[in-house]
What does this fold into?
Amino acid sequence: MNLTQKETELLKDLQSQEKLCMEKYRKYADSACDNCLKGLFSSLCSNEEAHYQTVSRILSGEEVSVNQSPTAVSQKLECTPSSCDAKAKENDGYLCKDALAMEKHVSALYNTSVFEFSSPVLRDTLANIQKEEQNHGEQLYQYLAANNMYA
It folds into this structure.
């Protein structure tokens, strides 16, 4: 499969963003106080790694379809309110809000890419990943809302 220069550049940007997401989620899982949030960050890191692998496969010339790419399972977050002290809870809220801003950015980048690709198969694959990024944002929002951190 031949990619245009623009498609290649968009994929490189997506790959870079996915790598950054993985790195942040690993660090955030280590830094979070609340065990539920640690688990959420670890799960999101795994999902971002699957996205990174899919983008890498496309960059290497594969026309990866939606059913060939690993999909993230969207889960409803089932956490009790955090029992961490106020300072740790504030830090957890910061990490969550930063992650939510990151997900908004990555989702927007996928949105742009969907419109720029000529292959219907790749557009569908990128749209599927974008939907998963939106689900990540929803999970982060659910945590923030459950802990009265969303303003």
Q: What stands out?
A: The CA atoms of residues 26 and 96 lie 13 Å apart.
